[in-house]
């Protein structure tokens, strides 16, 4: 009997201890959950936008010219075109223009046709004329960069004197636009850093680290005043003494920067 009574007491005591343990664990968990409610899982951040804009005087003059040649024979048309183009290229090199600044944009070879009218008896049906091949035409277009911009008018005049059939698109621009964009980006980042420092001071927080960076635009955005024109041979030969203002060309970069703060 005493053994049974003892076992019953031990079971009751064990149940009470288990209940108290569960109660204690529940209270601890509730306390932690209450703390979590007041703690944000995400760190506090601030985001600022910086802008950088830069202008520079164009450092190259750029234009294109075409050479056209015709002949009854393919080989003869190509040789005639080659002779004209080689004469112009030799002249360009004499002016100090390097091969890296001379680029063929396109080279086209076309068959040339003419229509032969039929001789028909008076009052009878006369079919339309017949298309007959009448030789070949070669057309080559070349783009040129002139790094000594003040020489562009005289270079164009020389090209025209050596058989170019069309000269167009003289414009003054920046050769390496990425250099300009890099400097504009640096200015934008400095602008963002300064704005972040001011904002953090106003909010009474301290900048901990950079969390994200984004650059708007993603490409070159030109802002410029440039001379761009198409001209005939008479205009090419000296531009009639007209002044060709180059203006300025530039780019603008915007960055968005996010910092973690405490």
The largest sheet is: 5 strands, antiparallel
Distance between the termini: 69 Å
**Low-confidence sequence ranges:** 218-238
Helix content: 25-40%
> Count of DSSP helices?
5
**Could you tell me the strand content as a percent range?**
35-45%
Q: Helices and strands, in N-to-C order?
A: HEEHEEHEHEEEHE
Could you give the count of β-strands?
9
Radius of gyration using CA atoms only: 40 Å
**Bulk shape:** elongated
Mean pLDDT: 81
| Strand arrangement in the largest pleated sheet | 3-4-2-5-8
| Structural category | alpha+beta
Observed structural traits:
alpha+beta, 9 strands, elongated, 262 residues
Question: What do these coordinates show?
Answer:
The strands form 2 sheets. This protein has a 5-stranded antiparallel sheet with strand order 3-4-2-5-8. Strands 1, 6, 7 and 9 form a 4-stranded antiparallel sheet that branches. The chain is built from 5 helices and 9 strands. The longest helix has 36 residues. The two termini are 69 Å apart. The chain has 262 residues and is an alpha+beta fold.
Give the SSE layout.
Blueprint: H1 2-37, E1 45-56, E2 60-71, H2 74-94, E3 102-116, E4 130-146, H3 152-161, E5 166-173, H4 177-203, E6 207-216, E7 223-224, E8 229-231, H5 233-236, E9 249-261
Antiparallel strand pairs: 1-9, 2-4, 2-5, 3-4, 5-8, 6-9, 7-9
Quick structural gist:
The protein is an alpha+beta fold and 262 residues long.
